[in-house]
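pls ignore typos typing on phone
coenzyme A + seq
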Amino acid sequence: MTTPATPAKGLDGIIAASTRISDVKGDIGELIYCGYNINELAGKVTYEEVVHLLHHGHLPNHKQLAELKTTLAGFRELPQGVINIIKEFPKNAPPMHAIRTAVSALGCFDTTCDDDSMDAQRRKALRLIAQIPIATAYFHRSRQGKSILPPDPSLGEAANFLYLVDGEKPPAEKESTMDLCYVLHADHGMNASTFSARVTIATLSDMYSAITTAIGTLKGPLHGGANEGVIKMLQEIGSLEHVDAWVADALANKKKIMGIGHRIYKVLDPRAPHLKRMAQVLSAKLGEPKWIQMSERIAELMLTKKNLHANVDFYSATVYYSLGIPTDLFTPIFAIARTSGWTAHVLEQLADNRLIRPQSAYIGPVGLKVTPIEQR
Ligand SMILES: CC(C)(COP(=O)(O)OP(=O)(O)OC[C@H]1O[C@@H](n2cnc3c(N)ncnc32)[C@H](O)[C@@H]1OP(=O)(O)O)[C@@H](O)C(=O)NCCC(=O)NCCS
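k done
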């Protein structure tokens, strides 16, 4: 095969795999999980139901859902060795560094790490869905010098995470808001972190390595890290009357506005309106409407000036902020929810695997001769 003369920069437009898990229809702004439009799922199903959907291709019945919840609750406890490692992390380490390292450590403590039977792979997938939130909450508590709490098996995934972070059970509205955020973030086609997870597992590495890879990829500000960037930007702008000048200056200096634009969506990201609605309700309740007002103005300016729409990270930042979640836990929460999608993709890749190995177009010099080192 000859090397293509012009590579697709950023693999733009390249179809890297077939999948039954999710579909991102960028031209019409639709997101589909296993046949269900995200607008159909949002508000009607819980995160745990979405986990089952992504892993099995269909929504669970009562019995299947109860089994899944019991399994996840049973998998939450972290090995003491991993808890010790988490407690040793520098208190000022960014949480994404901490959870990336914790997931890698979980692989060291799981004696089935290299068991490649599909049963073992499925168990490891669910274990990671259950344990990444615990690792995140434990790091957060430990960096504050607070005691870590045992997980509460009576709580669902979203509520248990909030409980372990805050030290108290969340009110129903906080739990349901977080659960919907998890649902909206669970999967998203061949996004960068999912692709990286599939590349890693396609070498027949292991589940923990694949999810460690994915977390490292999600962390970047052009991907999941953008939600932290949004709140930092809003804080830097400070107030509604400064928005127009700030945006004009950013655009003049070719600065990217976090939470705006998308490789695939050419119209509004379908997750954004759900998050915007939640952000509006929460901001009003909090009596701090300026964040949502500033966000709406930025979105309006970016649409008129650059024809770019808000993406999932834009309003999720205000939602998390309004829920009282520390800024540097925004991207970890994305990782917690997306672990359901990453693991589903890893299992799908394993079911019909081929090494993922694209080519590059070499554009360097050719035919050079070695000059002896003393003469260089
Ligand atoms: C998501 C993103 C990485 C997509 O990137 P992409 O498809 O490679 O698009 P590019 O970065 O090449 O941008 C294309 C053009 O739109 C502009 N653009 C894209 N997103 C922009 C943004 N958020 N702010 C300002 N300009 C933006 C670029 O400057 C570029 O303009 P130019 O052609 O005049 O140079 C990009 O929109 C971005 O960086 N957004 C901000 C980070 C973010 O929110 N990421 C989360 C995604 S869910």
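The mean pLDDT is 96. The two ends are 37 Å apart (CA to CA). more later
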